[in-house]
Design a protein that fits this description.
Blueprint lengths: L2 E2 L10 H13 L9 H21 L6 E4 L2 H18 L4 E5 L4 H12 L3 E5 L9 H7 L4 E5 L13 H11 L2 E5 L11 H4 L3 E5 L10 E5 L25 H16 L1 H19 L5 E3 L10 E6 L4 H10 L2 E2 L15 H5 L4 H4 L2 E5 L6 H21 L1 H7 L8
Parallel strand pairs: 1-11, 3-4, 3-5, 5-6, 6-7
Antiparallel strand pairs: 2-8, 7-8, 9-10, 10-12
Helix pairs in contact: 1-8, 2-8, 3-4, 9-13, 10-13
The chain binds pyridoxal-5'-phosphate (PLP).
Pyridoxal-5'-phosphate binds next to helix 3.
């Protein structure tokens, strides 16, 4: 049995998204900027896709800018707000300790350019406390960027409250909603979000395409110079097949949020309960305020990497945290941010489900994990010390 349980890293494309992409490649191959009929058909398909994306997130189509993915949207949003802030003498930016690296590394770059970056704590439940933000905002705050849902531990942030606080202080609010779009109900206008990033491959669309929502009137600087595409804010001939496919995938996901969420929440909770029967294991992040498909646990006395290899040999495709940090020896910055000690953070496992997963697959994972963890613990010097009482259990 092969069980794909790494949907937070990327998802398989839905049949409808694949068909939309192929149909577009076959029939709508023109350049949307060309004035002839074939070009205008492409321009129409582009406009349709923009309208669909706008409807799914509750904004006007003029407020949707297509990008190459979540990372680009995050970069553009943050750099734009920073540039605007700098012009007004505002160089203070607030974010959180557990953002995606597309946000954190952009902020690090800005720090080198003289911006002051303040990262809020997310506490042991993996959730930002709005009052902390209220206290942190200053007269020179240019931007607040807080992710909608965390990509490692799945915790969902109090976005409406955060947006309201930003509005009260007149500060721009951006959210990285890459894990949330298509999985949670989002209405940017109702929620008071100024800028938001999404990526197609996290909701069964293609890789390498995403969108940035920027409220009308919000300043955007362009990262890529060239032609007048995307109102001059993102040059380059549009990746039309991917854009059309993303719109199809997002509509499909948004139309099925309630159904998928109900199914996934049941699978997730069964999986969590099954895994936590392993002694000295712990769930990371709030048990309820989390994405319907996210399971993230730590096991004491083992290395997440060896666990992943053993799971893979048993046909279970998972992750130790984020795909971006794999290959590095540092434990996850997210797990450290919620207070897990280094040695515990090293023994992490993320299983991220989607609506294509079945109960049989979940049962299969539950049947395999305790034995694999025990096998690895039997070989672990750290576990040996814990067993002999030479070291104290932390979890
Ligand atoms: C995947 C992800 C990104 C990066 O998106 P890409 O499309 O891969 O560039 C950014 N933020 C979060 C929260 C993500 O999960």
């Amino acid at each position: 049995m092969i069980v794909y349980a790494d949907n937070a890293a990327t998802t398989a494309m839905s049949p409808a998204a694949k068909k939309a992409m192929i149909d577009c490649m076959e029939m709508t191959y023109g350049n949307p900027s060309s004035l002839h009929t074939i070009g205008q058909q492409a321009a129409e398909a582009l406009a349709d896709a923009r309208r669909t994306v706008a409807q799914c997130i509750g904004c006007d189509e003029s407020e949707v800018y297509f990008t190459s993915g979540g990372s680009e949207a995050d970069n553009q949003a943050i750099v734009s707000a920073a540039m605007l802030g700098a012009r007004k003498g505002k160089k203070h930016i607030i974010s959180t300790k557990f953002e995606h690296h597309a946000v954190l590394h952009t902020l690090e770059k800005l720090k080198k350019q003289g911006f002051e970056i303040e990262l809020l704590d997310v506490y042991s439940d993996g959730i930002v406390v709005p009052e902390d933000l209220d206290k942190a905002i200053r007269d020179d705050t240019a931007l607040v960027t807080v992710m909608y849902a965390n990509n490692e531990i799945g915790t969902i942030q109090p976005i409406d409250e955060i947006a309201a606080i930003c509005k009260k202080h007149g500060v721009i609010f951006h959210t990285d909603a890459v894990q949330a779009a298509g999985h949670l109900h989002i209405d940017v206008k109702e929620q008071g979000i100024d800028m938001m990033s999404i990526a197609a491959h996290k909701f069964h669309g293609p890789k390498g395409v995403g969108a940035l929502y920027a409220r009308r009137g919000i300043f955007l600087s362009n990262i890529i110079e060239g032609g007048a595409q995307e109102k001059g804010k993102r040059a380059g001939t549009e990746n039309l097949p991917a854009i059309v496919s993303m719109a199809t995938a997002l509509k499909e996901a948004c139309d099925n949020i309630d159904k998928n969420s109900e199914k996934l929440t049941a699978l997730r909770d069964k999986l969590i309960a099954g895994i936590l029967t392993v002694p000295h294991s712990i769930l990371n992040g709030d048990a309820v305020k989390r994405l319907p498909g996210n399971v993230n646990v730590c096991f004491e006395g083992i290395e997440g990497e060896s666990l992943l290899l053993m799971l893979d040999m048993n046909g279970i495709e998972a992750s130790s945290g984020s795909a971006c940090t794999s290959g590095s020896l540092d434990p996850s910055h997210v797990l450290l941010a919620i207070g897990r000690p280094h040695e515990v953070a090293h023994g992490s496992l993320r299983l991220s489900l989607c609506e294509y997963n079945t109960e049989e697959e979940v049962d299969y994972i539950i049947s395999k994990i305790p034995g694999i963890v025990q096998y690895l613990r039997n070989m672990s010097p750290v576990w040996d010390e814990l067993e002999k009482g030479e070291r104290n259990h932390v979890i």
